[in-house]
Amino acid sequence: xxxxxxxxxxxxxxxxxxxxxxxxxxxxxxxxxxxxxxxxxxxxxxxxxxxxxxxxxxxxxxxxxxxxxxxxxxxxxxxxxxxxxxxxxxxxxxxxxxxxxxxxxxxxxxxxxxxxxxxxxxxxxxxxxxxxxxxxxxxxxxxxxxxxxxxxxxxxxxxxxxxxxxxxxxxxxxxxxxxxxxxxxxxxxxxxxxxxxxxxxxxxxxxxxxxxxxxxxxxxxxxxxxxxxxxxxxxxxxxxxxxxxxxxxxxxxxxxxxxxxxxxxxxxxxxxxxxxxxxxxxxxxxxxxxxxxxxxxxxxxxxxxxxxxxxxxxxxxxxxxxxxxxxxxxxxxxxxxxxxxxxxxxxxxxxxxxxxxxxxxxxxxxxxxxxxxxxxxxxxxxxxxxxxxxxxxxxxxxxxxxxxxxxxxxxxxxxxxxxxxxxxxxxxxxxxxxxxxxxxxx
Length: 442
Ligand code: HEC
Ligand code: HEC
Prior knowledge:
The protein has three domains: 34-45 and 194-328, Cytochrome Bc1 Complex, Chain D, domain 2, CATH 1.10.760; 57-188, Orthogonal Bundle (Cytochrome Bc1 Complex, Chain D, domain 2), CATH 1.10.760; 345-439, Cupredoxins -  blue copper proteins (Immunoglobulin-like). Strand 7 (390-396) and strand 8 form a beta hairpin. A five-stranded mixed β-sheet has the order 5-11-10-7-8, with no helix packed on it. Strands 3-9-6-4 form a four-stranded mixed β-sheet, with no helix packed on it. It has helices at residues 3-18, 34-40, 57-67, 80-83, 130-139, 148-156, 159-168, 177-188, 197-202, 211-221, 252-256, 288-298, 317-328; strands spanning 240-241, 265-266, 345-348, 358-361, 371-375, 379-383, 390-396, 399-406, 411-415, 420-425, 433-439. It is α/β, with parallel strands linked by helices. It binds heme C (2 copies). One heme C binds at residues 72, 78, 80, 82-84, 97, 105, 107, 109-110, 112, 115, 121-123, 130, 133-134, 137-138, 143-144, 184, 188.
């Protein structure tokens, strides 16, 4: 080897040793290059919007309303939000949603956070824009089983809808398929997940992550190899990979007509995934622990396996727990609620439509006041004026009620027709307690 080459090889070896890749340092991981990874995971300032569908508050509000509008479905009882539920990261908590025909759908309902940056949509990427995607579930026999023309006619018959479309599309106010798709897409682009502890660490706050969480991040970008596909602040390369799940769904392959892409699915984002179990395109993995166990020891070997998947990862029990601890840091502490979703009002029980005799707030995870006295025939209004999602569970004489997710801005009004003592808690934050005593009306 010429001298020049030798010197170069020497330098290369020296830097390998420095990086901890050679010799006795082999089982000691390389130190985390903090500045590099902070740059690689920095969040962008704002979400992109396509030139042909700029977002306006009116359009977003229309889209948010349509997202919850059951008139888009054939049976008038399914909305986008039936499967894409805000408090479950816009997924639905089941492995596969039961479709119109009573059979489970082919794939799991994916969460919808941060799709403004998406390059293709569906697990197999068969839709090229959110606008194109939106029409598919409406007409899908097994999802909403709707007929677009019927849905458009129904919406056109509603004066409020005509007004909302006119405000959203001042130049072309018609209630058309194109405008429906644009409004739904514009709303979905507002679903940007909020900053979490990990983002505070990325911005320079060294204390934002616990040592175990940071160790998990080092594994994620280091020997566990996760960052080969879960890249950038959304944790996705937007590419398709076969990660060796036993499912026989061919995924991307048939979309392209390329069998080398069989079993490949779009790398999902990992943001807000604490709220969206079970995981994977078929919902076959119930927990983060089992996701990590999958990568460590359960990968099905087949020719289509992604080249970006590490061949063999040795992860101790501690390291697996650290990876899971890290995964938790890219989700919010409570299911986040986008400001673009309209508030809901729920009413329950006889007299629930009476003018409320009392009102209770839920700010800062506390019912205020914590006790109320009512009389039979009164209604009680509970307002979620907090920043997190709550839930109302009420138990008392002959009465029990569960509000489901109660989002910021939502109100629940309960009417009381029997005297007695009632306990109200939030099922998500059971330390929140409210006691209601209802006296016999005189
Ligand atoms: C019956 C349940 C159901 C309903 C209703 C439903 N979806 Fe979905 N959605 C799914 C499933 C399942 C998938 C994944 C299908 C696939 O990948 O093949 C999906 C995929 C998506 C995706 C792609 C996400 C990604 O990561 O690529 C978007 C966006 C979406 N739905 C929006 C909507 C909108 C908008 C509506 C209402 C017009 C809607 N969905 C109605 C179940 C549903
Ligand atoms: C070769 C690319 C690749 C690598 C490497 C990789 N993943 Fe994934 N990951 C994917 C793909 C693709 C899916 C979806 C697979 C499917 O549903 O068929 C996925 C799914 C997941 C999910 C479930 C997300 C959801 O919403 O369903 C989690 C969590 C996850 N990966 C974490 C990790 C961790 C932790 C590592 C490192 C140990 C890792 N991934 C390594 C590509 C990869």
